[in-house]
Structure formats: structure tokens, C-alpha cells
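Q: Protein A?
A:
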Amino acid sequence: MSDKKKQIKEGLTKLVIPKDFLKKKHFFNPKVQLSRDFTVLVLNTLDAKGWIVCDALAGIGARGVRIARECRVKKVWLNDASEDNIEFMKENTNLNSLVKRIKITNKDANQLLSEQPRVFDYIDIDPWGSPAYYFGSATRAIKRTGYIGFSATDTATLSGTSPITCLRRYGVESYKTDFFKEVAVRILITSAVLSFSKFSYSFKPLLSYVSEHYFRVFGEVKKGRSIANKNLKENLGYVNFCPNCLWRKISKPITKCEFCGSENKIIGRVWTGQIEDLKFIEECEKKLSEIDWLKTEKKIRKILFLLKNETLPFYYNIHKLCQKHKLRIPKTMNLLLELRKNGYFSERTHFCEEGIKTNATLKDLINSIKSMPIKIICD
């Protein structure tokens, strides 16, 4: 082996990676093992036996080779536009004895996908920046019922730092909120939904999560004009947000805040439906108990546990809420118990350590914090 390479192991798969793996030429990020582990779990949960899979922006091939080695798929296409990565793809394919199960191509991802109509059961899109540039061609390449996983690393754009850039890339003008990570995921889903609907496909999110520097979504796509139309009608709406008091509401656009009367910011139209499928999350938990080779198993299990509570849209960042309203900051668990005592749903969220999801109104949430004994408040 070259002194510029080294061998590692992820899951059940041996991988040859460059020693300078964080350079863009042969980029490999060990911190994204969680994402690759999640992909293996999702495909095993979906029972991908006999599937044809495309890793459209494969880099050195780590994700696609792991899919071929650790899932019961028929074939994996590894593709990358950079010739520099082909050598690593071939070496990793041979190292794991997967020559018959892997096809390697060296093309622009959009070109490859456009040339393979209705070929793939699952397509993975993991680019530098935005996946939105590849949704159109992915729609051509996916089967009439299929699945897609995609990541976005342009987190600042999606989170409200560059609203016009977000509008240009994703079709929604973002705005900085205290629940910006969830807004970002919902904008990302919106882009996929709108792109697939142009070709009479529906997109249903199965699992969405945030980790470190990226957003990740897995979903089902299905051909059918009526289901695509229904998906749009039932799940796209407007988010009214007041920067002055942090009030928020999903409804038709409202000019003035219903809590303090200040002018609202309106985000939309954006995906307001479920960002997780509860049944699928539970199936992932069961499958995770059967898989004993994922190094990030504990992290995945914690995320899945929290995702089951993501049924309500838009979390509150309790620290920011208390700072805005000049309240003492309560311990999160104590606040959850106080809200439950008062008859409200309340749970933590994976989006934010200081965040909670609750069906309490902003007024009732503030009153609950105010009514808590001083001894269970911590500044």
C-alpha cells in the first residue's frame, strides 16, 4: 500500500482512505460515520434485498461499498465526477471482494442519473453543499416506487443566514429563528417535494435528523399524480414567526403577532407535515437491536428515541425564550414535568439541547415558567 494511504474499518467493511483524507481531492470525513451507519440501518430496515442502488456522489466510495457489503442489495453503482477517486473505489471494491456487486462510473452525477431512467431502487445524494441540484435527475432515475437519502452541508443558507440564496437554491426564503435547525430541515424537504412533484412523484419523509455540520433526510418516492397533488395540498403551508416575542403559528399568512402585536416574518410555503414516520422509526429501533456492528449504535439509538417525539412542529429554545422575556432559565426536565402536570404534551427534541416541543401556547409556556418554584430554577 502507498505511504499516502491507510486502511481502516467501518462496520463490516475495510476501507482504504488517503492519509490526507480531509483534503477535497480525496475527501473522506470520519465524523460522518454516523451518516453512513444510519444509511446501512435504513436500507436493512427497508429490506433492500435485490435492490439496485446508486451512490451518485461517492467520493472514494465509502458509503456505497458499505451498502454493498452490509446490506442485501443486488448491485451498487459507485459514481463520482473526479477521476482521482476512481482508484480508491476500485481498491475498496477489490479489498471487500465486491467486484460482482459494484459498478463504477466516472460521470457528472446529473448526467449519470439522467441516462438511467427508472433503474434505481435507492439513490443516495451526499454532495458538498446543496443536494437540490440533483433532485430533477434523481426523479428520472428512480423507479416508480423507490427511496432516496440526501444530505445538505450548506447549513447557514438553510438556517436563515442567506435568505435569497436559500430562495434561489431551495425555492423558499429562509429567516433566522430560534428553531432554525428544524426550519432548515423543512425547507430541505420542501425542495425535494416540489422537485419530485414536477414529475408526478410524491415524496414522503421517513427519517430526518441534524448532526454537527449537516442535515440528512431519507424518504420514499412514489409515482402518481393524485398522491403527489394530495401531498402538496396537505403538507405545504406558512409559518408565521414574531422575532420580538418568539411566537409562531402555522396558518395562512398573518401580518401581526397574536401575542405581542409586532410585525411577523412569514416563511413559506414550506413543508409543515411530519418529518418522520413513527412506524418506520420503531422498525429502525428493532432492526438496530439485530445489528451489532455499527460503531455509532448508541448515538443512533438516542436520536431515534428523540425522533419519536418530533411529531409536533417547531421546538422552543428555552434559553432564548427566557432571555427574550427576561425569565429565569429552568432546568429542562423540570419544565417538561411542569408542562405535563398542567396537561400539555412536552418532550425534548434532537434539534437542540435546550429545546423542547410542546402543544402549550406561548402564553401558557411563559406562565408555566413563571409559576415554577425558585428552587428548581437555575440561571
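Q: Protein B?
A:
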Amino acid sequence: MQGWAARLSELGDVSPFDYPYAQAGRKSPDRLEKLVAAHREALQRARGRSRRPVVLVGKSLGARVGCHVALEEPVTALVCFGYPLRGTTQRAELRDEVLRQLKIPILFIQGSRDSLCPVDVLQRVRRKMNAYNELLLVEGGNHSLQVAQAVLHAAGDTQPDVDARILTATRNFLTRVLGAA
């Protein structure tokens, strides 16, 4: 996310942070309650530095936790890079309840090869959501939105080209939702 934090800073103030488990060098995330508390605390720090509309942007776990925070804190919109709709096993239950509870606009940026968020399943969930939502599908992208070299080569693309399209789509989404707010 460091690269994305730098890119997103073109669009506004960015306040990246790490969850306590990551700061401690652990690989296993804390329980959801602790993650939400840490995210809320980071949000409060960021609010102290700016009066602009707040948009929570997260990658994978950060996207999921950001959605939970958005149910409790006033924010204007969400941008989810690689939302983990299900766990690492095919039998893992869907993590869609929070999405169905949201009321604020949300942009999903998903790779077409993301095993944690099969696009067909996300499309079904999106139809059940109350919140306005959009999907940017990164063709050939994995959970980290990295596109395979063969796909890039066939399309005459580079990963920076893909990243630029993601940034443009994010800018356009924010222009639409912030203009409507």
C-alpha cells in the first residue's frame, strides 16, 4: 500500500497506518474488534489534521475493516482495493454482511483472478447492497491487483499503465460522490 499511498496523495490528504499486529511484526491479524479500534484511532488522528471529506481507502484486510469503521464513524465514501469477500478456503463463509449494511458510496477495485473475491460472487453481493457501489475490474489482476506479464504483454500494457487507470477510476469515482455530497 505504500505505493498506493503515494499515488493517492495526488487526490488528497493520505494518512497511512499499520495495525498493531503488523507494527509488532506478527503475521496473524488481531481480532476484528481490535482492528476496528486501531482503524478508528487512526481516523481520529487524521481528522485532527484536516477538515476535508473523509474517504476510507484500504487494501484487503484494511478494506474490510474500513467498511466496519464506516458503520460507526461518519465518512463520505469507501474505496476497497482487493476486498477479501471470503477467506483463503473455498468453504470460508462470505464476509458480505458489513457490505449489505453500508449506506455510503463504495468503489471496489478487484482483480479478475482474485481468489479471495470471485467476481461473480461480488456481483451477487453488490446487487443486495443498499449503498451506491461501483466496480473497477482489473482484467488479469490478482488480489494485489498485479497483472500477469503474459496478460500485460498481450494487451500491450505495463503495470504502471494499469495502476494509472486505477488511479483515474478512483479520481472519477471520488469526483462523482464528493460532488454529490
